[in-house]
């Protein structure tokens, strides 16, 4: 299984509204103890290339977002599942959440407006992930950040390269769902 390595620009979490602190609260502590959050090696390497704190920032932000709702965290927007590709024959197991845009000023203005109104935020930059529930414990595998402006084009799988990438994500998700193993 081979995933393209992201450039730091593709995975950046730097944003004026996101503070790179490790602030936690009781709600975050509860989620941290009740769930396990892992990253693929490919995503971890891309985040490490950006900065020494990017992995921790993504993990903390994701946990905080999962504790709340779609509208309660600036970095994360609309959350939904992919019908295709299926994971072991099951659609809707591979998920993605929209991330704040980094380079498209028009999209960023729309994102900020939606954030201020507490309405649905969408972009063409997404975090692909999978959720596993086993033995009353929820765990997540953060697989990859699809960059703007091509996240939706990749997910549409109209080219062989895009299909292979998305099917690779499904294989990574299948292994994680089956055994908790991270194979990429």
Notes on the protein architecture:
With 184 residues, the protein is an alpha+beta fold. The chain has seven helices and five strands; from the N terminus they run H-H-E-H-H-E-E-H-E-E-H-H. The model is unreliable at 1-10 and 12-34 (pLDDT under 50).
Task: Please specify the SSE layout and strand pairing.
Blueprint: H1 8-11, H2 26-34, E1 35-39, H3 41-50, H4 54-67, E2 76-81, E3 94-99, H5 105-117, E4 126-134, E5 137-146, H6 151-156, H7 160-179
Parallel strand pairs: 1-5
Antiparallel strand pairs: 2-3, 3-4, 4-5
Helix pairs in contact: 2-4
User: What's the total number of strands?
Assistant: 5
Low-confidence parts lasting 5 or more residues at pLDDT below 50?
Answer: 1-10, 12-34
Q: Work out the oligomeric state of the chains in this entry.
A: single chain
Strand order of the largest sheet: 1-5-4-3-2
Percent of residues in β-strands = 15-25%
Tally of individual helices:
7
Give the distance, in angstroms, between the N- and C-terminal Cα atoms. 7 Å
Mean pLDDT over all positions: 84
> Radius of gyration in whole Å, from Cα?
16 Å
The secondary-structure class comes to alpha+beta
Summarize the helix and strand pattern as letters. Answer: HHEHHEEHEEHH
Proportion in helices: 40-55%
Q: What is the global morphology?
A: globular
Largest β sheet strand count, sense and barrel closure = 5 strands, mixed
């Amino acid at each position: 299984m081979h995933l393209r390595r992201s450039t730091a620009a593709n995975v950046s979490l730097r944003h004026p509204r996101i503070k790179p602190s490790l602030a936690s609260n009781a709600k975050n502590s509860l989620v941290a103890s009740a769930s396990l959050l892992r990253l693929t090696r490919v995503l971890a390497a891309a985040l490490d290339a950006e900065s020494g704190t990017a992995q921790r920032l993504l993990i903390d932000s994701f946990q905080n977002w999962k504790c709340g709702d779609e509208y309660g965290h600036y970095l994360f927007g609309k959350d939904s599942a992919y019908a295709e590709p299926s994971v072991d024959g099951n659609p809707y197991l591979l998920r993605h959440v929209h991330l704040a845009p980094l380079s498209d000023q028009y999209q960023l203005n729309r994102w900020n407006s939606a954030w201020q109104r507490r309405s649905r935020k969408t972009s063409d930059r997404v975090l692909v992930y999978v959720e596993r529930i086993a033995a009353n414990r929820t765990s997540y595998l953060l697989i990859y950040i699809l960059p703007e402006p091509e996240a939706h084009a990749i997910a549409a799988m109209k080219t062989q390269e895009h299909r292979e990438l998305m099917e690779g994500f499904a294989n990574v998700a299948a292994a994680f769902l089956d055994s908790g193993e991270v194979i990429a």
